[in-house]
Design goal:
The structure is a homodimer. By secondary structure, the first copy, chain A, is of the alpha+beta class. Chain A is about 30% helix and about 40% strand. The first copy, chain A, has four helices and seven strands; from the N terminus they run E-H-H-E-E-E-H-E-H-E-E. A seven-stranded mixed beta sheet of chain A has the order 1-2-3-4-5-7-6.
């Protein structure tokens, strides 16, 4: 598995990863009817850089990295990870996160923060904690899960 | 004091409130060298509506209201408040917040969340708690204060 920067040529491949995640609406706080165009705009917004995991020419996952805030909050990174449906359970999320930690360090960030982890997303909750992230906050009923109803979200944080 | 929607004609008056807050860089996570144009773009971004407090034709403060996240996170509001330097201590922040709580309820939000309250901003910390907001998270060293160095930030939350 290799991880490399997203390019304009990856647009259809990225959407093949993003669309099922967005349509399911169970883990990300994005509009479930998001268009392909809006999805591309989200992943290529000027405040972030995006990377892809790839093996044998197949895209396995993606993440973005940005400053979580501007000004006096710009020393803390924020990231988001998506794994291709047919690549779940193969360590792609872990590989993306490790790559993002390294990239964030190289960019001079001092810490990384997740603003919105849905607590019913057990694999993510487990993975981030195994990678050194601590829960630093909890929003009661922060997410309207399409199947489970209102569930809590947490913020996670680790130094770099 | 009246509170009303921001209009294009308010652009210079809004900037007179925003510029000192941004330049000081002690309470908001915005670039300290933000231009007037970027400031206006921030306050009038398509994801938010903005309001002004006014008395005798003078602008006293401003706030914006938006959904804190999209999709399954869109039921929680997020707001930001700024008070004109020469109007501090006159209850403008409280009036703006009470107005925003009412507006958020009217828009159908179920709760309100602040993502980034600088803990050294004692008047804000006190005010939000007096208005029913609870601290639901803390980011260690989340803010690089230009005078005090790295200080914690907190997230705050209340139901509507």
């Amino acid at each position: 598995m290799q991880i490399r920067a997203l390019t304009p040529a990856d647009r259809p491949g990225l959407w093949a990863i993003v669309e099922p995640v967005v349509r399911a609406g169970e883990t990300w706080a994005l509009d479930r009817d998001m268009s392909e165009e809006a999805g591309w705009a989200y992943w290529t917004a000027p405040d972030r850089e995006a990377f892809l995991a790839e093996a044998d020419g197949r895209l396995l996952g993606a993440y973005f990295l940005r400053a979580n805030h501007g000004g006096g909050g710009a020393h803390i990174a924020n990231t988001g990870y998506m794994v291709a449906q047919d690549a779940v359970g193969r360590g792609v999320g872990r590989a993306l996160c490790l790559h993002s930690l390294e990239t964030a360090r190289a960019r001079g960030f001092r810490a990384m923060q997740f603003n919105f982890v849905v607590t019913t997303n057990a694999p993510a909750m487990h993975l981030w904690q195994s990678l050194g992230f601590a829960i630093i906050g909890r929003v009661p009923g922060g997410f309207r899960h399409p199947v489970l109803g209102d569930v809590d979200t947490v913020m996670m944080f680790r130094e770099l």
